[in-house]
Design brief:
The protein has about 280 residues and is mainly alpha-helical. The chain contains ten helices and no strands.
């Protein structure tokens, strides 16, 4: 009995580790999907009616800093495109991450992927223009540099993901596409970080009026650096030689997902829903 039973815990441990890692990834996706669709509802419910009724001038009086500037036609068009196209990018990004769509509807996966990449580049170019062509109404240049760095990474990851797909190196394509998803989602992550921090600390180390402070400086870089770091840990834990580390990496992903859930709740209930329905 001892000889028969003794191998079982050793054999079961890697399987359990794989299950925890897979479950952590699925939990992350579920929270991400819910949170990003709330963001889409906010964009469609708050911005679209205003822009549809008044054009770019509809952004006047919203919370956006420099949202509408009289006479700045290029800038006004850029900010409308930057905001409204984001809703479609989020939807396309969700389609890219669903395995059933990749497997059963490959054409939809390819075309939504092409749109995702192309639209992401357009939105980033518009965002970079807005960050540096207009005088900053809030924040500092270092904060703008952090946000812009995330945008530049989008411009790097798009061709790398596309090249891997063209070469039919689907393993590499998956890795670059997921990295692209993380940096494209940086503006969403930024909102989770800020509102989660406000809810749990009351806004320590930040000035909400000028939108400056040590925490906001860190957040402007963490919005893309932290998701990329956790994703890289996930890639590392996936490798068979690192199976002993799968469980603690899964724990890291669960912990980060929990913090994301706090941010989703805070920004949805405290900002997005009130602005759409009141």
């Amino acid at each position: 009995m001892t000889d028969y039973a003794s191998p079982q815990p050793v054999a079961a441990r890697p399987g359990r580790a794989r299950n925890w890692l897979s479950l952590s990834a699925k939990t992350w996706f579920a929270v991400t999907a819910i949170g990003q669709w709330f963001f889409v509802v906010y964009i469609l419910g708050f911005y679209v009616p205003r822009v549809s009724a008044n054009g770019p001038k509809g952004l006047e009086g919203t919370h956006l800093p420099n949202g509408y500037i009289e006479g700045d036609t290029i800038g006004n068009i850029a900010i409308v495109m930057h905001i409204l196209v984001a809703a479609f990018i989020i939807a396309a990004g969700q389609l890219q991450l669903i395995p059933a769509i990749r497997q059963r509807m490959p054409k939809l996966h390819r075309w939504s992927g092409r749109f995702y990449m192309g639209a992401s580049v357009l939105v980033v170019v518009a965002g970079l223009y807005l960050s540096w062509a207009r005088e900053a109404a809030i924040g500092t240049n270092l904060q703008s540099l952090g946000t812009s760095t995330g945008g530049v990474l989008v411009l790097i990851f798009v061709p790398l993901a596309l090249y891997a797909a063209i070469k039919r190196d689907f393993a590499a394509h998956r890795r670059w596409a997921l990295r692209l998803f993380m940096v494209v989602s940086a503006v969403w992550y930024f909102r989770l970080i800020i509102f989660g921090w406000l809810m749990t600390t009351g806004g320590a180390f930040m000035d909400t009026k000028t939108f400056t402070g040590p925490f906001l400086l860190v957040a402007s870089y963490a919005q893309f650096a932290l998701p990329l770091l956790v994703l890289q840990l996930y890639f590392w834990a996936e490798k068979p030689k690192n199976k002993a580390h799968k469980t603690w990496v899964a724990g890291v992903i669960f912990a980060c997902t929990g913090m994301m859930a706090i941010g989703v709740f805070a920004v949805t209930m405290g900002f997005w829903i009130p602005r759409v329905f009141t």
